[in-house]
Amino acid sequence: MAIEPSRNGGGGLADVIDKILDKGLVINADITVSVAGVELLGIKIRAALASFETAAKYGLEFPSGTNLETPAWTEALIARENCPQCEKRVPIEELITTGCPWCGWISAKAKALAQKISP
């Protein structure tokens, strides 16, 4: 996965970590030790690093006993998209129907709905 430079020109460790948490990172490794075609030792390693939102999006499994009824987990299940203007994460439904609460960007669908409502 290539890390793209950010639009604001500043690229640092925080940008890389944000990108990894946003997209997720999975490391999968199979290590085997064999002699004369006979496997003596086999190790399988799988590690995943992702935000709750990304994990929920891709259905990653969590350890047993994880409480999935918390407000943070419920919030993570809401589909979000970056605002085209300010790039803040906003629920998709809100972004499409009303616009961005952070910068005031309004989608074409929201503009069309507003025109139908006003006389």
Structural overview:
It is a single chain. The protein is of the alpha+beta class and about 120 residues long. The radius of gyration is 21 Å and the shape is elongated. It has helices spanning about 15-25, 50-60, 70-75, 90-95, 110-115, and strands spanning about 25-35, 40-50, 80, 90. The chain has two domains: about 1-60 and about 70-75, no CATH class; about 80-119, no CATH class. The protein has a two-stranded antiparallel ribbon with strand order 1-2. Strands 3-4 form a two-stranded antiparallel sheet.
How are the secondary structure elements laid out?
Layout: H1 13-23, E1 25-35, E2 38-49, H2 52-58, H3 71-76, E3 80-82, E4 89-91, H4 92-97, H5 108-117
Antiparallel strand pairs: 1-2, 3-4
Quick gist of this model?
Helix content is 34%, strand content 24%.
> Could you state the order of secondary-structure elements as H and E?
HEEHHEEHH
| Poorly predicted sequence stretches spanning 5 or more consecutive residues | none
* Strand-pairing-aware structural class: alpha+beta
Placed side by side, the strands forming the largest sheet appear as: 1-2
Structure summary, number of beta strands: 4
Counting structural domains, the number is 2
Average pLDDT figure: 81
Beta-strand share of residues = 15-25%
Number of helices: 5
The general outline is elongated
Radius of gyration, rounded?
Answer: 21 Å
First-to-last CA distance: 50 Å
Q: Describe the main β-sheet briefly.
A: 2 strands, antiparallel
The level of helicity is 25-40%
